[in-house]
Amino acid sequence: MMSCASCGNFDLTRGTDMAIKFFGQFLAEKNIVTRDALLRAIDLQDTKNLKLGEMAVSLGYITQADIERAHNAQMSKDMKLGDLLVEMGFLTLNHLNDVITRQKNTHLYIGEALVQIGALSGDKLQQYLLEFKADQAQFVSENIELPCSTANSKIWEMTADMTFKMITRVLHLPFRPGKSALATTICTNFMMAAMDLTGDVDARYLISVSDGLQKTIAKAVLREDSVDDETSNVLEDTVMEFVNVVCGNVAAKASQMGVIMNINPPVTIHPPAAGLPVPAGHTALCFPIHIGDGEKMELILMIKS
Amino acid sequence: MKKVLIVDDSLSVARQLERIIVESGDFVCVGHAKNGAEAIKMNHSENPEIICMDMNMPGMDGLTALRTLSVMDKEVKVVMVTSLGGVGDKFTEALKLGAKNVISKPFETDDVLRILREL
Fold first, then answer.
1. A117, A137, A157 — which closes off a domain?
2. Number of domains comprising chain B
3. Which of A96, A123, A125, A161 has the lowest tally of Cβ within 10 angstroms?
4. Minimal Cα distance from A255: which residue of B?
5. Span A188-233, pLDDT tens digits
6. Is residue A1 part of a domain?
7. Number of H-type helices and E-type strands within chain B
8. Mean of the per-residue pLDDT values for chain A?
């Protein structure tokens, strides 16, 4: 991550695009390919890119009946299909690794699919891939240190990193991240906005902000010079929307990392003066965010153990 | 001017989108629905030509509403405006359900207008 040499504050230049995207979406948003072409390319991918079970059947390692038995077993066991096929004795570990390797080696990417259906030339594909990589380079994760080891630690490091990047890109705030720590109580603040994260993870994402910082966020989100006449509902809504934007982009990055993360509608919390206790069975990772001017901001990841 | 319905549980996003749409001079905002169920009702009462709709909303979410709208109204053009745009599965599902495009949050004014004008 870039930092100002004199003050250590973060100061990333705003890019042309501000969100995590995948290549097909990048092309569609820029009207480089039509929606219909993209749908035809996705259909081609669906026919060419075999799922793990389909690939294993095509290689003669297992039968369709084995897959169905494994699918039934998945209803009572929280395991990936490949691991379950091995555990049930339908597939050897060597065969599973072979299937995964073949899936990777034969995967038809969306850009290649668009070339195959004639929506893009090979040369243009290379050009747009370079533009896409340059656009998304701003979201390459930096080193974030967690205070303890936890399941999905790479996801939580990325979540903190994405939060920092969005503070710069969306809120345009210079800041300095503090050292993260474990907490048993979440420090009080003017308000918090929270979002529950589900899927392969089970956690609550919280941003706590001071009064003045809430107004700063509102100005940035509403793109207004003054928010003095706004209602408290609108001001709170802007913090929730910031959380929504961060978590949506975290979910996009997580999907690129092979982790399914579902987001839920954000909520606001007005913490008591004594702070919020961390529920039993949860680990709270706190990341102080130093803004200056006496304003207080903190990212908290409350992860179910 | 084309009539646009905004569907988002966030007041601030609705305000941003309305400003972008109205200031362009090419579109008029006919209302703001806060979830998918309201969107279906307002699509019937306001008869918009374009709907800008979030995915992640309390009550009926955007993809569920899109599924219904695609069956009920073949004319209206739906663009999803969502922080989940970068999730490949969500993007693909939206297109397959009939969305004309997907705009990721945070969005830029020029991107929104370019996509709406292309419809």
1. A137
2. 1
3. A123
4. B87
5. 999 999 999 999 999 999 999 999 999 999 999 998 999 999 999 9
6. no
7. 5, 5
8. 87
Residue type, B102: V
Identify all chain A residues contacting B12, using CB atoms and an 8 Å cutoff. 218, 221-222, 234, 237-238, 241
Q: How confident is the model at residue A9 (pLDDT cuts 50, 70, 90)?
A: very low
DSSP A242: H
- Name A176's bridge partners: A290
Do residues A188 and A125 share a domain?
Answer: no
Tell me if A71 is assigned to some domain: yes
- pLDDT at res. A141: 61
* pLDDT, mean of residues A255-266: 92
Query: In angstroms, how far is CA A292 from the centroid of its own chain?
Result: 28
- Give contacts of A 153-172 with B, CB under 8 A: 166, 169-170
Distances (CA, A) of A191 to A9, A188, A205, B75: 24, 8, 14, 43
* Torsion A53-A54-A60-A63 (CA) sign: positive
Measure in Å the smallest separation between the Cα of A110 and chain B Cα atoms: 11
Residues whose CB falls within 8 Å of the CB of residue A65, separated by 6 or more in sequence, listed in order: none
More confident residue, A81 or B27: B27
pLDDT digit string (tens) for A168-194? 888 988 888 888 889 989 989 999 999
Domain of A295?
142-304
Is the pLDDT reported for residue A6 higher than 80? no
Average pLDDT score over residue span A236-244: 95
Integer Cα distance of A253 and A247 in angstroms: 10
Rg of chain A, C-alpha, whole Å: 23
Q: Are residue A188 and residue A292 in the same domain, yes or no? A: yes
Distance CA A291, CA A174 (A): 7
- Interface pTM, i.e. ipTM: 0.90
Q: Using pLDDT thresholds of 50, 70 and 90, give the confidence band for residue A143.
A: confident
CB contact under 8 A, B105 and A245: yes
Residue with tokens 């209302």: B31
Determine the residue of chain B that is closest to A46 in CA distance. B92
The CA dihedral of A280, A79, A22, B6, to the nearest 10 degrees, is -60
